[in-house]
Write a structure and sequence with these properties.
Number of helices: 3
Strand order of the largest sheet: 8-11-14-17-20-23-25-26
Structural class: alpha/beta
Number of domains: 2
Order of helices and strands: EEHEEEHEHEEEEEEEEEEEEEEEEEEEE
Number of strands: 26
CATH topology of the largest domain: UDP N-Acetylglucosamine Acyltransferase, domain 1
Helix content: 10-25%
Strand content: 25-35%
CATH class of the largest domain: Mainly Beta
Shape: globular
Largest sheet: 8 strands, mixed
CATH architecture of the largest domain: 3 Solenoid
């Protein structure tokens, strides 16, 4: 993690959640359970003032550039699309924003694990000794991140998946539900491992791999998302300027 990034796992300010889909709602639940105030959602697909599970929508993604919000709130980007989650998180940080993390009280995280900024770890996930979780990563429930595992920036580990000791996922890699990555296998950046796959050897960058044993189906172009994106706005949903 960049030592100069403003990151706060348990912020002393309310948290704005970017994205009001299922990931955003899950993050809201985690924060509330941990006693952190939720300021509201930002989402281009919702109406200003709409309430989602009792939490107000404060506007679209472009409000992440709002100076007052940046000064008084922390942010977490809760979008399933790894690329968009990374871009929005970095844009908030570059404006001096505070990036919060959401770690469920029922998650089991080793004291020696290294956790990046803006991450989400859901219920009953296990992160074992000396594992490293990169900035903006999403770790779903009932997962196991083994000892010495390295999850790259904005990686995604689906529900029930296991990444065993010594394995590594590259930036933006996606591991589907109930898949197993057996260490010391390396999954390349932006590669997608399908649900239920068993990975025993290294996978290159930007491929789709499925099955048990895992096999490469096809390459992924640079334009393809490593996950199924939430609906996009017709406007500028990634405030990079």
């Amino acid at each position: 993690m960049d030592p100069h990034r403003s990151a706060c796992p348990t912020p002393d300010r309310p948290v704005v959640i970017v994205g009001a889909g299922h990931q955003g709602r899950n993050v809201a639940d985690i924060l509330v359970r941990g006693g952190t105030a939720v300021a509201g959602f930002l989402d281009d697909t919702r109406t200003l003032g709409e309430r989602v599970n009792g939490v107000a929508v404060l506007g679209g993604f472009d409000r992440a550039a709002d100076g007052e919000l940046l000064q008084h709130a922390a942010f977490i980007v809760a979008l399933g699309d790894n690329r968009i989650r990374r871009e929005l998180s970095r844009a908030i940080w570059q404006r001096g924003g505070v990036l919060a993390s959401a770690i469920h009280p029922a998650a089991d995280v080793s004291p020696s694990a290294r956790l990046g900024a803006g991450i989400c770890v859901q219920a009953f996930a296990r992160i074992l000794s000396n594992a490293s979780v990169g900035d903006f990563a999403l770790v779903e429930g009932l997962t196991t991140i083994g000892s010495d595992v390295v999850l790259g920036e904005a990686a995604f580990v689906g529900p029930g998946a296991q990444v065993t000791a010594g394995a590594a996922l590259g930036e933006g890699a996606y591991v589907g539900a109930n898949a197993i990555v057996v260490g010391p296998a390396r999954v390349g950046a932006h590669t997608v491992v399908g649900a239920g796959a068993v990975v025993r050897g290294d996978l290159p960058e930007r491929v789709l791999a499925v099955g048990a044993p895992c096999r490469i189906v096809r390459p992924l172009s640079a334009a393809e998302s490593p996950f199924f994106a939430q609906p996009r706005s017709t406007g500028n949903s990634v405030p990079l300027t």
